[in-house]
Design a protein that fits this description.
Keywords: Disulfide bond, Endonuclease, Hydrolase, Lyase, Nuclease, Signal. With 278 residues, the protein is of the alpha+beta class. It is built from seven helices and nine strands; from the N terminus they run αβαβαββαααβαββββ. Helix 1 runs antiparallel to helix 5. The longest helix has 21 residues. 37% of the residues are buried.
């Protein structure tokens, strides 16, 4: 426990040192041809459960985290999303392209905790097709001002929140373990997170298994409740969470001779879905 605390403390120091070194003033403006979008209301840290997503992997590539020799057994980051209280969100707010050089000091950490779980390239706002991180920065990161000012700070902020509020550890401390056979009451999962985190999460499921779990923060990065519904009221049956849910494991399909994934990566998981909170 002491080692974990020391590791987190060391990470926080690294994060803010890097962020301080890379900060610069950024004026808020809309992409060419778009009206200016208003300032967001809160952040949503969206986490993916690899056991559910990677179970669908059929072909591998070097960039797919599902294809590593050891299965991923912790939640990984999907993105840090600025959202509005009415259930909508801003997107592609500033015309600034993703630059890998700006986050090279974070690359090893991003590879481990923020991997793509697909092989296909992601669409971006300003750079055509690109890596998963480019999509997240251009679509969501550029809308994160005034809290987040630049690309480096976007990724360091997301990583800082991820380590500070470790969902995998929260669930384990509440007796909710990774298992293919064990089912847990949805209400117990929500209550466990709410007690440890201080706010109600959103949960998205796929065929009864957790696909994503989302934590929400105010603009001072303090925990708050996530919204319970989307404004249009559409519920997708594919994303419905039943009363009892699972956190399954998976057997990695290790990269061999295959160089592409037949699955098409969704541009983002922010689609109408059944979102659950207490």
């Amino acid at each position: 426990m002491a080692m974990k605390t020391a590791r987190k403390a060391a990470w926080v120091l690294v994060v803010w040192a890097l962020a301080a070194a890379g900060l610069g003033s950024v004026s808020a403006r809309a992409p060419l041809g778009r009206e200016a979008q208003r300032e967001f209301d809160y952040f949503k840290l969206s986490l993916q459960w690899p056991g559910t997503i990677c179970a669908s992997t059929r072909y591998c590539c070097a960039s797919n985290g599902c294809c590593r020799s050891e299965p991923l057994q912790t939640f990984t980051i999907h993105g840090l999303w600025p959202d509005y209280d009415d259930g909508t969100w801003p997107a592609c707010c500033r015309r600034t392209q993703f630059e890998m050089d700006k986050i090279l000091p974070l690359k090893e950490t991003l590879d481990k905790y923020w991997p793509s779980l697909f092989c296909s390239s992601s669409s971006t706002c300003f750079s055509g097709k690109g890596p998963f991180w480019a999509h997240e920065w251009e679509k969501h990161g550029t809308c994160s001002a005034p809290v987040v000012q630049d690309e480096l700070q976007y990724f360091t902020t997301a990583l800082d929140l991820y380590f500070k509020y470790n969902v995998t550890e929260m669930l384990s401390s509440g007796g909710i373990q990774i298992s293919n056979g064990k089912e847990y009451a949805l209400s117990d999962v929500i209550d466990t997170i709410k007690h440890a985190f201080g706010g109600s999460p959103q949960i998205v499921c796929k065929r009864g298994s957790v696909e994503e779990l989302r934590l929400c923060f105010d603009k001072e990065l303090k925990p708050r409740d996530c919204l319970t519904t989307l404004t249009n009221g559409i519920v997708s049956r594919r994303k419905h969470c039943p009363q009892y849910i699972t956190l399954p494991t998976y057997d990695p399909l290790v990269l061999a001779n295959s160089t592409r994934e037949i699955m098409t990566q969704f541009n983002d998981f922010e689609v109408p879905a059944a979102l659950y909170t207490s």
